Amino acid sequence: MVSVKEKIAYGLGDTASNIVFQTVMLFLTFFYTDIYGISPAFVGTMFLAVRIIDAVTDPIMGALADRTQSRYGKFRPYLLWFALPFGLISVLAFTTPDFGEEGKMIYAFVTYTLLMLVYTAINIPYCALGAVLTADPKERVSVQSYRFVFAMLGGLMVTALTLPLVEFFGQGDRAKGYQLTIMAMSALGVLMFLACFYGTKERINPPKEAVSRSYMDNFRQLWKNDQWRVLALVALCLMSGYVLRTTLAIYYVKYYLEMPDSITLFITLGMLGSMVGCVIAQPLAKRYCKVKLYIGIQVLAAALCASSYFVAADNVTLAIGLYVLWNLVFNTGTPLLWAKMADTVDYGQWRTGIRTTGMVYSSIIFFIKLGIAVGGALGGWLLAGIGYQADVTQTEETKAGLLLAFSLYPAIGSLIVAFVMSAYKLNTQKVDEITLELKRAAE
Predict the structure, then answer these.
(1) Residues of the domain holding 380
(2) Does 119 lie in the same domain as 13?
(3) Among 148, 334, 393, 400, which is least packed, fewest CB within 10 Å?
(4) How many CB atoms lie within 10 A of CB 168?
């Protein structure tokens, strides 16, 4: 059993990660277009290019972590080594030097690339750490539930505090406000990563014969894992729709609902809904098959997302209610998905004899980031395509395009996820059988 104290310590790592992750998803596009003055078309293209570059490094980082040998374990050391660089580069990404148009683009490209690379260096080992805290499938859901409650706490901090802190620190200078706000949040994130490092323990150490020495052999063994392939495709489609919707949330409130002063309230209530979803994931997983439950969650999320299309701009209460409910339902599936990744690691070892914890997590995160890249790029391209202009009253055609992109397009992503997940066969019974066989083999 993993103690509550250790689960909280592990969760703090994702609080720290989400201080940057949620800021990037919710505010970075808006920061680039409305604060730094870069065109939305360039932002969309940059997001796609940088995130693809970054995503390619994920499997390499995972393979490196699998081979790491230290007195702290395989994955924990990276929390210690990269906490401070992560905080410093986060601040640089939200700094606005007075360059010309081309210089701004170069600076944004370089700092955003560095941010994504250092995020990889600390987040891949952090995610893989969750798979070696316990071998109990039920405890894994519990660990991931704690993790994502604390992850959403980080997101809640971002949604509730970012804009008020920007006003407080900036005193009318929004560029300065963003820089000082991210500086304060990053300092807190560094401390949380260190708390995660000191408060957790790696318990699963695969026998030497279960660790491949060849990078290429790791990739070959990974590809033999058909259930990994299902989760990889799920991650891509899932994040494409999710990031598109969350990226456009600020624009939806400011320009469609025409309530710019309610942006913080809108996204904060959405984050609270996400936290509730993560909390109820574990009790639901105890009662229902995790695979069927996940499919049902995605179908319901698609329906709630699409419903926003039919909400009139003056019906603010319903618009907020649907967004909160969508976040609750959608994020009920998040701990379930990450628990499935740990199950997929066991499945790969059971099937091939080789355990590739870091590779499984990093490669699925590759597809998560690819989905983030697609979703972010779609957001920028769609804004450009519908004729969006920063800080002006939008035309009715632009508002209609924004509503469509915020509601119906992300719903398609969830429906595709539900369809792909029907090919996943590691249900509760199968996972229990695999766990028992691996335990017997280790004795």
Answers:
(1) 225-441
(2) yes
(3) 393
(4) 12
